[in-house]
Amino acid sequence: MIEIFSAADLPRAKASGRFIATVLQGVQDRVKVGTNLLEIDQWAREMITDAGARSSYVDYDPSFGDGPFGHYICTSVNDAVLHGMPYDYALKNGDLLTLDLAASLQGIVTDAAISFIVGESPNPSDLRMIETTQRALEAGIAAATPGARIGDISHAVGSVLTAAGFLINTDFGGHGVGSTMHQDPHISNNGRPGRGYKLRPGLLLAIEPWVMADTAELITDPDGWTLRSATGARTAHSEHTIAITDDGPVILTS
Ligand code: MF3
Ligand code: CO
């Protein structure tokens, strides 16, 4: 399903996006060496409840996961890149943490992810990997103008990742959002320009480049959800939800 919203819905979409951005920033500010992933999940649960928002994760039960997710935020550490299920783990200095959050506020889901280093003296190759996903995200957003096609976003994202020397996994990528989290169109993190669904005002899209340092192959953790690099290499992920408007793309989750 593809949902198209009216200009009158934009304030609700912006409120939802601002909420997600505020939670992610709030969690990043509070995380320090020793923070437990389960504490982060509690913080997210409290902030979602206090705002009157609805978690898109806790009851989520798609084909690619094992049973309802049962948590409020994804916490992917080091070799974990997507769908990281919070567990009893205290973060260490230098851990590369990705937070990914989607929730519905005022009836609209927005979805965003950030990667950052916990503690001090980050590894330069981690910073480069994170910065590459941010640049790929910016390029994807810039390509998301009305009249352009999904393939233009995929191509823009993929070009940045490839130029930086990364292999690209196309099993998981961006997606439409709306009243639910995962909608059509799917947005591969690599693709050919000029192909696919034509972007029009009112479309809400989550664009989400992610990479693993030396592989494109994922393995699923025994928890049935967390996706890790097959080689154990470190990983990064950046995601925003945007609205396509007559005036171009508007980032909702910043
Ligand atoms: N928000 C993730 C995405 O970017 C999906 C997480 S699904 C979960 O599309 F259930 F693992 F949380
Ligand atoms: Co997403």
Report the CATH superfamily: Creatinase/methionine aminopeptidase superfamily
CATH architecture group name: Alpha-Beta Complex
Would you tell me the structural class of the helices and strands? alpha+beta
Ligand species: 2-amino-4-trifluoromethylsulfanyl-butyric acid, cobalt (II) ion
Measured on Cα atoms, how large is the radius of gyration? 17 Å
Instruction: Give the tally of β-strands.
Output: 14
Terminus-to-terminus distance: 26 Å
For this structure, the CATH topology is Creatine Amidinohydrolase
* Average pLDDT taken over every residue: 98
Task: Give the uncertain stretches in residue-range form.
Answer: none
Quick structural overview:
The protein contains 4 helices and 14 strands. With 254 residues, the chain is α+β, with helices and mostly antiparallel strands.
Describe, in plain words, how this protein is organized in 3D.
- The chain is an alpha+beta fold and 254 residues long.
- Helix content is 27%, strand content 25%.
- The chain contains four helices and 14 strands.
- Strands 7-6-8-13-14 form a five-stranded antiparallel sheet. Strands 1, 2, 4 and 5 form a four-stranded antiparallel sheet that branches. It has a three-stranded antiparallel sheet with strand order 3-11-10, with no helix packed on it.
- Strand 10 and strand 11 form a beta hairpin.
- Helix 3 runs antiparallel to helix 4 (150-163).
- The longest helix has 21 residues, at 10-30.
- The two termini are 26 Å apart.
- The chain binds 2-amino-4-trifluoromethylsulfanyl-butyric acid and cobalt (II) ion.
